[in-house]
C-alpha cells in the first residue's frame, strides 16, 4: 500500500475503514449524551478494536497463528492478546463505565458486520479472485466472538467445485478442525 498524497482524503485503502468507523460512531452516539471522560474512554476502546485487527501472518509456518496488527507495529510486540473483561449486573463499576463498555460492545458487533464483508470478495459479482489455498491463515466469521477476539484458522484442505472455485475448506484452529463454507472465512487484509 502506498502512502496517501497530501490533501487527498478520499484516496487510500484505509479511508474505507475511517468511513465505516465514522458511520458507526454517528449512529451509536446520535441520541446519547456522554461526558468528556466517557467519550474519551469510548474512543480509546474503538481505537483498540481498530488497531488489533489482523493484517497478515507473521511467518509462513503452518502451525503459527501469530498475526501482524497495527497495534503490534505501534508497540513493537506481537503479544497483545488482552480481551475486555466480562461485566455482570452485580459489578460495582460506576454506571458510566458500564455504559461505555456497552457502547464498545455495540461498536464491535456493528463494525464486524461491516468490516468482514470488505475482506470477503464475492466471486459471483466481481472479477474472479484468488481461491483459498492450503496453508492460508484466515479469519473465522463468528457473530458470537467477544470484543477484540479475532478467531483465526489455517486452511488444511480445499474442496473446489467443477468450475475450480473453492466453496468449502477444512480448517484447523488452535483447538479443533472442521469443515467451513468459504463465505464464513476471510483472507487477511494484506495477504496476496
Summary, kept brief:
The chain has four helices and seven strands. The protein has 192 residues and is of the alpha+beta class.
Q: What this model shows, in words?
A:
The protein is α+β, with helices and mostly antiparallel strands and 192 residues long. It has one domain (12-192). Helix content is 33%, strand content 17%. The protein contains 4 helices and 7 strands; from the N terminus they run ααββααβββββ. The chain has a 5-stranded antiparallel sheet, with helices on one face. Strand 5 and strand 6 form a beta hairpin. The longest helix is centred in the middle third of the chain and has 25 residues, at 95-119. It starts with 13 loop residues before the first helix and ends in a 5-residue tail after the last strand. 16% of the residues are buried.
Amino acid at each position: 500500500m502506498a502512502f496517501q498524497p497530501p490533501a487527498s482524503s478520499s484516496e487510500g485503502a484505509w479511508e474505507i475503514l475511517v468511513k465505516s468507523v465514522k458511520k458507526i460512531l454517528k449512529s451509536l452516539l446520535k441520541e446519547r449524551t456522554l461526558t468528556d471522560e466517557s467519550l474519551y474512554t469510548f474512543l480509546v476502546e474503538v481505537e483498540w478494536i481498530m488497531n488489533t485487527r489482523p493484517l497478515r501472518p507473521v511467518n509462513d509456518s503452518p502451525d503459527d497463528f501469530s498475526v501482524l496488527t497495527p497495534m503490534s507495529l505501534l508497540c513493537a510486540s506481537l503479544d497483545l492478546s488482552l480481551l475486555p473483561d466480562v461485566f455482570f449486573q452485580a459489578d460495582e463499576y460506576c454506571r458510566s463505565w458500564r455504559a461505555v463498555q456497552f457502547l464498545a460492545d455495540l461498536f464491535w458487533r456493528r463494525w464486524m458486520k461491516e468490516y468482514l464483508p470488505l475482506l470477503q470478495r464475492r466471486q459471483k459479482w466481481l472479477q474472479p479472485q484468488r481461491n483459498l489455498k492450503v496453508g492460508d491463515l484466515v479469519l473465522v466469521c463468528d457473530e458470537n466472538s467477544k470484543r477484540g477476539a479475532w478467531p483465526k484458522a489455517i486452511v488444511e484442505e480445499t474442496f473446489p467445485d467443477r468450475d475450480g472455485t473453492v466453496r468449502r475448506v477444512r480448517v484447523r484452529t488452535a483447538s479443533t478442525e472442521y469443515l467451513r463454507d468459504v463465505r464464513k472465512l476471510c483472507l487477511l487484509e494484506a495477504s496476496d
